[in-house]
Every structure is written in C-alpha cells, then in structure tokens.
Specification:
Distance between the termini: 40 Å
CATH topology of the largest domain: Metallo-beta-lactamase, Chain A
Number of domains: 3
Strand order of the largest sheet: 1-2-3-4-5-6
CATH class of the largest domain: Alpha Beta
CATH superfamily of the largest domain: Ribonuclease Z/Hydroxyacylglutathione hydrolase-like
Radius of gyration: 24 Å
Number of helices: 16
Number of strands: 22
Length: 471
C-alpha cells in the first residue's frame, strides 16, 4: 500500500494518493486534477474512487473534473446530499482498493456529513486515518461552518456532535495509527493547527487539547468555541459549489488565458462590474500600478485573501501579473471559486507604463524611517494584522483594523491627516493600501517589512504576550 500526502502550502491543504495493486484512490483533491492523474499513471494505476471527507468550505474540490477524466466514482460519508451522481456511503461501509480496505467512519461535527476514512493494509492491519477537518494535528475543525448552509444548526450543536465523534469514533482507535488531516497551519478551518502535517494518533491524544479525556462535553464546547474568529465570507459560496457542481477548470482556463493589449485591457476595465487584480509583489506594486487596481500578491496567501477581499465568486476579474505567472494565477483563483477571469494584460504592467498610461504609486517607509517619523511627530498608526497577532504585541497606540475589516471600516481612516499602515511583513498592508487608494485615500504610507522589521527598532511596543495564552 502506498499513501502519499500531496500538500499545497499556499492554502495549507493536503490531498492524499493511496494505491494498491494497480488501483488508486484520491482523497480531497484540489481543483487542478492533472497532478493526481499523472501520479496514478506513474504507477500504471487506475483511479477507482475519489473520496471526499466533507463538503469543503475553503476550496473548490476537483472531484467532478477528476471523475470526468478518469471514470472514478465519488464517495461521500453519510447524510451528504450532492446534486450529482455519487456514492453516499453508510457508516462503517468498506471499500476495496486493490488489496487494501477503506472503512468509512461517520464523524459529524465540523459538518454533518464529515467522515473519516480508516486505511487497512493488505494484511488487515489498521494503518492510518484520513480525517478531513474532523481532526488536525494539534486541533480539530471549527464547528461553525455548516450552520451557514443548514439554518437550524448552531455552533454549539455542531461542537457537541464533534465531541461525540472524537470520543466514540476516533479516540478508541489504536495509538499507532497515523493521522492524515486535510489542513495544516495557516488554514482558517481551525484556530491553532500545528505546522506538522502528520502525526500518530497516540501522540495527538497526549498533546491535542480537543482529545483531553478529562473534558466534559460542556467544557469541550466552551474550549472549542473560545477564540473562534468570524469565518471567511467566501466559505459558504465554496460549500455550495462543492454541493451543486461547477464549470470544468479546462473551460475556466480557456476563458481566462486571453492576453489583452493595453487598449483592449482599458476597454474591458471600463466595465462597471469588472475589477483589476494585480498579483505582483508588494514592492513592485508600490512602485507603480494601474489606477483602480487591487493588489493581492501571488507570492503570499493568495487564495485565502482573494476569497476574503473578492468575496463574490461571480466577480469578473482582469489580471495584471508578472509575465509567465498568468496560468498559476487563474488556477489559484479557481481554487476558491473565482472562475470569471476574463484575461490578462499582455507583458504586464511594463506594457501599461511603456504605453505612457497614467499610473499610481504607494509611499513606503523602512522601519528606520518609520521610527524617526514616529519619534518626531504624533503619528497615527494602523495595525492591519489579526486581533490575535495585535494582542501578542503591537506598536504603542496603534489602532487595530484587521485586513478583512478594512473595507467595512473605511470611515476610521482619516481623510485629512496622514497615517501609516503595517502588518506582519508588508503583504497584507499593501492589500489594504490598494483598497484605500481605490476608495480615494492618498496621504498615507506603508512600512516595508512590517512588524517583523519594526520590532528591531526602538519604536515603543507593548509587552510581548505568548499567543497560547490568548486562547
């Protein structure tokens, strides 16, 4: 039996390839399915099943395209109601892949259809569990997502279901089992996931707060719900795409991979329902960008912030990219359901600039320049990081407006007084800067390198608080 984790760091996602005797199964595939097809071809294996642990919220699964291209069958756990042909398995149902067995364990809590798949090798030995968002390394799935799809559910009810699933289905299993989760650190599907992406169940029983056997159900619910942030706004839209179906990625790529001249780009950008997404680095964007552009760099948590900031998956998008990255940008947009890329500016921003077109810039300060300015005047400072990061440590008197709240709280930014933005490293603050520019603000600066550089200066900062004490 082969079990391989296929990890995609930019969205902290893990898919799995399992093979035995020329048959293969894929678990929780991403939207671009060719890598899974190629992996099976390497083993001369036939993809027999595509197992889904649940209807995902943070990405659009590739299950439908994978089935169309391979003839495999989709498998969901009990209670799933997909709008397309799929096997809705029963609890404890067993599927054969070559000489191995895959047993369905219904583990509701993250969502009601959430299921864990127990891998049993050729000798009948239980090898590991593919847990989806039921159990992570160091954490468990947040129980507040399904309520946005099923109105009568509450996060308290879901947390109670998750407690029962962990105690009755997961914890009785052997300590030797390997835990294969769907996400690692950086995913919004949990609150304190480890950077490790696999572990033994026995070790998790010792260190994972959610598997503490002394917790009562009431205590578990309280601990699990404490510290949960508002889920990203695009999550419910992705869930519906995964339930109802979507366009093939091939169609999306064909539509989006359209190079546009400067003139053609201008005409398309004049459409009132179209936005310009500039995916270059913060540094490149700051030096010059097309007026009205939003900057979300491909070099960071691109899909996550696209989902947060361009939260209508039907939004029409025009791309400004580093030449050669257009295809990657379109794929990453499609991962979170933004399927309406209309094309990209041929030869990127350089073509715009060379055509003599108007462009804008963002003023940036080094940490040293920020220190001088902070010391010399009564400076208004905005911290664009998450509240948990802000609470850990921040510049004294800084105002915390997390990036995903900037558009809703534009009135908090003064129109007649200069101010400075910073985040952790400069990625998020440049997104915020582009939004402020689009909304008409001009008298502000961004700190290059963010708080990571500010902390090295003498700028007054609050006392450091260990993040683990914030939960």
């Amino acid at each position: 039996m082969k079990v391989e984790q296929i990890y995609t760091a930019c969205i902290a996602h893990a898919a799995y390839y399992v093979e035995s005797k020329g048959e293969a199964a894929i678990f929780d595939p991403l939207r671009e399915v060719q890598p899974y097809i190629d992996r099976a071809a390497k083993d001369n294996a036939l993809i027999k099943y595509v197992f889904e642990t649940h209807f995902h919220a943070d990405f659009v699964s590739g299950h439908l395209d994978l089935v169309k291209k391979t003839g495999a069958k989709i498998v969901f756990g009990p209670t799933a109601k997909p709008a397309y042909e799929a096997i809705v398995a029963e609890d404890n149902q067993v599927f054969k892949v070559g000489d191995i067995s895959i047993k369905v364990l219904h583990t509701p809590g993250h969502t009601m259809e959430s299921s864990t798949y127990l891998l049993i090798d050729e000798n009948g030995k239980e090898h590991g569990i593919i847990t989806g968002d039921t159990l992570f390394i160091g954490d468990v799935g947040r129980p507040d997502l399904a309520q946005h799809v099923i109105a009568e559910l509450t996060e308290e009810k879901l947390a109670g279901y998750l407690f029962d699933s962990l105690r009755n289905k997961i914890m009785p299993l052997s300590d030797e089992l390997i835990v294969y989760p769907n996400h690692g650190a950086g995913s919004a599907c949990g609150k304190m996931m480890s950077k490790e992406t696999t572990d033994t169940l026995g070790h998790q029983k010792k260190v994972n707060y959610a598997l503490d056997p002394t917790l009562t159900k009431e205590e578990f619910i309280k601990v699990l719900l404490n510290g949960l942030t508002t889920p990203p706004v695009y999550f419910p839209q992705n869930v519906l795409l995964n339930i109802k179906g979507y366009e093939s990625l091939d169609t999306i790529m064909e539509r989006g991979k359209q190079p546009m001249s400067v003139t053609g780009f201008e005409i398309a950008a004049d459409e009132t329902d179209t936005i310009i997404l500039d995916t270059r680095t913060a540094a490149e964007f700051a030096r010059g960008f097309i007026p009205g552009s939003i900057n979300i760099g491909i070099d960071g948590n691109f899909a996550q912030w696209v989902g947060e900031m361009i939260n209508n998956v039907q939004q029409k998008i025009l791309l400004v990219t580093e030449p050669g990255t257009e295809e990657e940008c379109i794929i990453r947009l499609a991962r979170v359901g933004n399927d309406n890329t209309l094309g990209y500016l041929k030869n990127g921003f350089a073509a715009w600039k060379n055509a003599g077109k108007q462009y804008e810039t963002i003023n940036r300060l080094t940490a040293a320049e920020f220190e001088k300015k902070y010391t010399a005047e009564q400076l208004l400072v905005f911290d664009i990081r998450k509240k948990s990061e802000f609470d850990t440590q921040h510049v004294v008197d800084a105002i915390n407006i997390p990036l995903n709240q900037v558009e809703k709280r534009l009135a908090a930014f003064p129109a007649n007084k200069s101010f400075v933005l910073y985040c952790a490293g400069g990625y998020r603050s440049m997104i915020a800067a582009s939004i402020l520019k689009l909304a008409g603000w001009n008298d502000f600066a961004d700190v290059t390198g963010g708080f990571a550089e500010i902390v090295k200066t003498g700028v007054p900062k609050t006392e450091y608080v260990c993040p683990t004490t914030l939960l």
